[in-house]
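G., before I forget:
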Amino acid sequence: MDQLSSQSGQPAGPLVEVEGLGRVFDLSKRWLNRVLDGSGKVMLVAVDGVSLSVERGGTYALVGESGSGKSTIAKMVVGLLPPTSGRVRIAGADVWAERSVARQRELRRRIQMIFQDPYASLNPRWRVGSIIAEPIKAFGLASDAAAREARVGELLSLVGLDPRDAVKFPHEFSGGQRQRIAIARALASEPEFIVCDEPTSALDVSVQAQVLNLLRDLQQRLGLTYLFISHNLAVVRHMATRVGVLYLGCLVEEAPARELFADPKHPYTKMLLDAVPDIGMEGIERQSIAGEIPNPINPPPGCHFHPRCPYVMPQCRSVVPPLYTVGNAKVLCHLYGAGGAGGIKPPAS
Ligand code: SF4
């Protein structure tokens, strides 16, 4: 039986469980072209066996450079892109194996997504009221048009806009206001889990903090659970309870947010953190992230990170590291196995 959390009355434990999730894209030319020019199949492993779980009411942040597989994972979790392997469970229901149409529909209601570009995600020809009312109508969450209109007004107030804004079009708002409209629409289906895919990266720096604070307030008020996708560690620090660091489709480190920022264990995490500007460290030179992310179609053998790693050891070039448990963290690195150095030490100069 589910244990009830004392604060929210919701069952405790993970709401979202991702197990061995993988996605391979076939980028091959057509069969006839391959025969004519003698080329082989080209497969891109975008996500490679990722497992994670998101606690109810928590924020799990996935970070990594562009091309690390963050957005591909987000799309598989919300049901927009089928995985090649593995599974995704929301409150015990398998997103990709659920056969009952009624339960699929219920899953779609419970999971929503907020996208990076608030303008592209809102239909420019629809008034804001119709945009927000659409999920209410689709899932039958209001008894009639008057109840729907009242609910739209409530949602606009909830995200800090005026209920009278319902009659306007998206182009009449600023970028930050448009993202608030996108959040109101996501909330319209009364979801419990929201995937936020770089929700502030298209906004001015001055507006980013306002939108992040709004997301945090809504989480507390409504008991929401977030999967937060970002390349920006400063944003992640503000939001996350747990962080997963992705490199070329693999989860290379996962830890409670506070621990990961205080004591990064994977050399790649350390490199990402060393590159973050920190207000409290003025005058200290920040190190940019060294090297380029390799071609994912032909990743380096062994540890994919070895061409960029300042701690590289001979086995890193040929042996794929296992996932080690180090305290509350999980780390994909030979430094934590037998024959490793037991962790990050200053690299030999
Ligand atoms: Fe660096 Fe080796 Fe660890 Fe990879 S396995 S991160 S190359 S030390």
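Residues 1-8, 279-283 have pLDDT under 50 and may be disordered. Residues 205-222 form the longest helix (18 residues).

More on Monday.
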